[in-house]
Every structure is written in structure tokens, then in C-alpha cells.
Specification:
This protein has about 180 residues and is mainly alpha-helical. Helices cover about 60% and strands about 10% of the residues. The strands form 2 sheets. It has a two-stranded antiparallel ribbon. A two-stranded antiparallel sheet has the order 3-4. A hairpin with a 2-residue loop joins strand 3 and strand 4.
Length: about 180
């Protein structure tokens, strides 16, 4: 049998959910894998603070992007400027809960599982020796440039002045004592 004979296409079914007693929103039941990857990666990137994930931000961005990508609610650039405020408005008015309730349960569970797995995998890597070596290698050119700049600005006369001051503060004894 040829693949073409299966006549397959991506399912585009939606659920309708009523919010605020009179507004109906549509919730996608399936999101293409490329969009799922984007959703998870964006949430992880935005929740990363240094080398650790801010769990509250991860929850916020994950849920916010569920609404962005699964519902037919259109958000302008202006709406999205302050995502913390937008999240609070959506959360406090149960819009996020309605979107999640309107999703296919297996779809939500899959996304939640994937974000959890990728977060743990990334955390293990960030704490590994390989990540530390990679960080040193990536930072090396910038650090070398900074060292060259320090050496270029180094003034031996000022160093001698500091050495003399420290000796005087040390009751006239040399620094090495």
C-alpha cells in the first residue's frame, strides 16, 4: 500500500468553550509537532534565569503559550507587551482553565510530560562538566580580549604607588611579610 492511498491529513478539529457566560472560544484538539516544540522551547527559554528555571515563570509561560497556540483568541502586540499582566488577567478570569479543559487530555499530558523531561535533561546538562567546559570555551575569546585590554591599560607606576601605600599601611614592612 502506498502512503498516498491512506488519504491522511492533519486533524483540525476544535472544541467550543463558553467563557464569561456569553463568549465562545475555539480550542484546537491537535497542534502540529513543530508548534508543540516551539511552545515548549519558548516556555523553557523565558523561564530560564541564569542556569536554573524559575518554576513560577515556567508554569506561567507554559499556560500562556497554551492559550496563544491552542485557542482562537487573537492577541495584538500591545496585548502581549506585559505578559505577566496578561497572564494574571487570563488566570484570574479562568480563561487558562477553560482552554486546558477544552483541550484533548492526551495532548495536554504530552506537552506537560515533554516540558518536564526537557527541563530535567537541560538541568542535568547545565550541571555537567561538559557544560562547564563548553562555557569556558565560549567565554574564552571575551575573557582573553578583556585580559588584553587590562594589560594594555596597566601602568607599572601606579602599581608601584599602590605597593608603597600598602607597605606604609603595613608599618613599613614589605607586602610579602
Amino acid at each position: 500500500m502506498n502512503y498516498k492511498d491512506l488519504n491522511l491529513s492533519i486533524k483540525d478539529k476544535t472544541n467550543q468553550v463558553v467563557v464569561n457566560d456569553d463568549v465562545t472560544i475555539e480550542i484546537k484538539q491537535y497542534l502540529p509537532i513543530e508548534d508543540k516544540i516551539d511552545l515548549v522551547q519558548i516556555a523553557l527559554q523565558k523561564a530560564l534565569e541564569g542556569n536554573i528555571y524559575n518554576e513560577m515563570k515556567l508554569d506561567m509561560y507554559f499556560n500562556l503559550y497554551l492559550v496563544y497556540m491552542y485557542s482562537n483568541i487573537e492577541f495584538s502586540e500591545e496585548d502581549r507587551v506585559d505578559e505577566f499582566k496578561l497572564y494574571d488577567e487570563l488566570e484570574s478570569n479562568d480563561i487558562i482553565a477553560h482552554v486546558i479543559a477544552g483541550m484533548e487530555e492526551s495532548e495536554y499530558n504530552y506537552l506537560f510530560k515533554m516540558i518536564s523531561i526537557l527541563k530535567l535533561t537541560d538541568q542535568k546538562y547545565r550541571n555537567s562538566a561538559a557544560a562547564m567546559v563548553q562555557s569556558v570555551i565560549q567565554d574564552l575569546p571575551g575573557n582573553a580580549a578583556a585580559a588584553v585590554e587590562i594589560m594594555d591599560k596597566f601602568d607599572p607606576n601606579k602599581y608601584k604607588e599602590i605597593e608603597t601605600f600598602v607597605e606604609a599601611a603595613n608599618a613599613g614592612r614589605p607586602i610579602s611579610q
